Amino acid sequence: MSTKDIIDTLAGIEPGSALDTIRARRLQARENAQKSYLSLFEPIDAGEFSLAERAAVAAFVTGLHGESPVAAFYRGKLAANADGAALVEAITAEIERGKTSGPYGAFPAGPLSIENKAGLIYRVSAERKAILGARLVAAFEHAHLLVFRPRDAASSDMKALLAAGWSNTGIVTFSQLVAFLSFQLRVVSGLRTLAAANA
């Protein structure tokens, strides 16, 4: 289990620094973020959502946001697993295929429809489906949906995950993991920006 705070590590925060002092003012938020990381990435029992799958999803999701210490961290976490290197290579190629900007998608008919915006509907390439396996293929396609076009999410998308072998519990954990990564990326980016401004 990790004992060092993951956000401090990824943001390069040293004990006693100005940013360490700032984070200490929100101790409960700091502790809860660390507990979330540990429960999602270093659980006592990973259940049906293996640690390797969690690292693979994290490498994909953080990679979609662009190169960062967070993306490098999860790539390294995945590479440390058996068969991780082959997955890193496949995921790197899929990140390139899935890069876009968002959010985009369509709202139900009504006043918000004016905000509708078309964008990439990502699908894993046929050549990498065998390397990734059905579960990760479905996970990556769903993660891309959550990151870039959440307004398009529908019950049929959940059915695709279930058909690929995900359980209801696994889908909940997967969704929590994607949401946590979005939060973590923003916090680390903000803290690194503050550190650069204070340098």
Defining traits:
mainly alpha
Low-pLDDT runs of 5+ residues are none
Oligomerization state of this entry? single chain
* Main β sheet profile: none
Mean pLDDT: 91
Q: Which range does the strand content fall in? A: under 5%
How many beta-strand runs? 0
| Anisotropy-based shape | globular
Gap between N and C termini? 32 Å
Using the CA coordinates, give the radius of gyration: 18 Å
Which structural class matches the secondary elements?
mainly alpha
Q: Give me the strand/helix succession.
A: HHHHHHHHH
The helix fraction, in percent, is 55-70%
Q: If helices are DSSP runs of H or I spanning 4 or more residues, what is the number of helices?
A: 9
In short:
The protein is an all-alpha fold. The protein has nine helices and no strands. Helix content is 66%, strand content 0%.
What can you tell me about this protein's structure?
The protein has helices at residues 6-11, 18-24, 27-41, 51-64, 69-79, 84-98, 126-148, 155-163, 168-198. It has 199 residues and is an all-alpha fold. The two termini are 32 Å apart. The model has no long low-confidence stretch (mean pLDDT 91).
Structural topology:
Blueprint: H1 6-11, H2 18-24, H3 27-41, H4 51-64, H5 69-79, H6 84-98, H7 126-148, H8 155-163, H9 168-198
Helix pairs in contact: 3-9, 4-5, 4-6, 4-7, 4-9, 6-7, 7-8, 7-9
